[in-house]
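Allow me, if you will, to draw on your knowledge of protein folds for a short while. I have a record of one protein: its chain in single-letter code and its fold written as discrete structure tokens. I remain grateful for any guidance, and I place the record below:
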Amino acid sequence: MPVPVPQQRAVSAAETTHGADLTLLVISDDPAGTFTVPELPSTTGARVRVRTARNLTEAGRLLTHQVDCVLVDLGVAPPAAPRADSRPGDDASAHPELATLQHVLRIAPRHAVLALTAEDDAERAAEAVRVGAQDYLFRGELDGRLLSRAIRYAVERKRADIAQHQLTESRLRAQENARLERGLLPTPLLDGSDLEFAAHYRPGRSRALLGGDFYDTVRTPDGTVHAMIGDVCGHGPDEAALGVELRIAWRALILAGLCGDELLSTLQQVLEHERQSEEIFATLCTVDIAPDGRHAGLCLAGHPAPLIARHGRAARLLPYEDGGPALGLLPGARWPRRQVQLGGSWSLMMYTDGLIEGRVAAGESRRLGQDGMVAMINGQLDRGLGGEELLEAAVAQAQELNGGELTDDVAVLLLERDEDRIRRRGRSATHSRPGPGLSAGAQRPPL
């Protein structure tokens, strides 16, 4: 049936200056080909360009990214044969009367689509919207103002639908990435140890959970506690992935019994095989604390030395004069293992350079450095801070001194040993044991 529409009025350039022109593709089997855009209200300030297709094959050729909206006559002959991948129960098989519309929706997934049908076919028109059309029009009620409004409404609704779909996809992707990154962060293996553990991690990348810094802590069956912290140069997603690989490799090698120079040499081989270019390197600090908790072995591979605070004494840096180069810089490098005395009660803080490379004040070029960090930590220890509270305060103060967010990844790890608490715990465990002839659930009578 020919579509009765008024003749198109010439639109002046002045009327199109302030509005956005639209392109409409009309798919109609009108044999006379007389379809024209109805006269637009002068207040719209825009015009509609029209492309006409007499069948779906011709429509496929005319459908380009320049088309904003498609007006499809539901009376147009459907495709000659059903799609090979259509199954009983899907939209195509459930609504054969909408096969033409569904074909258009498949070939124009990012275009606004209007369905055109007869006045007595309201149910079919409503079903067209449910299937995916933005709106429907009746042939006998079509006029210029209605068509103009329907086109612009359909275009804006399609844009909103696409934006909402992209936003939903972005949120789902962000949630999936967050779950993945959380799963890649380490879970310390310290069961049976008397040491207290705390860590603080803040990637330099915006809206990221994982950066190029990495850390881990593992207690082996002999009672030794192994701790590590490292930093892959750079702070992008590739560096974050490499940091995870190195951390997992370190844990596997520790559980396999490697330590010191042998451990770091093997990690360097892993780095050389996994890095994207030969310019990539990683710094590393490893500590293995003896089962008695009073002494440890220290290896440094181009990494800042840990800080130790003993009971009643100011914090200071552990010796770092005889460390080795960063992993990946020198083939065949060696990393000497140095013995250090810890004492009975102590706090050992390991960190990446993101903590010490911030400015000492906004607008100044001088860096905080290791000496400034030691002074900062001593001030916080004087306030009685410890554990996670100490680490959070240290990072917060470094950011405050820097005058804003630290640009590099920051990882800080804290291991603490309190000899008095260990003794009290041991006495408590001894007193809680049931004596001879007394069951574990029985209570002694009061003295």
Q: What stands out?
A: Residues 1-18, 87-93, 435-447 have pLDDT under 50 and may be disordered.
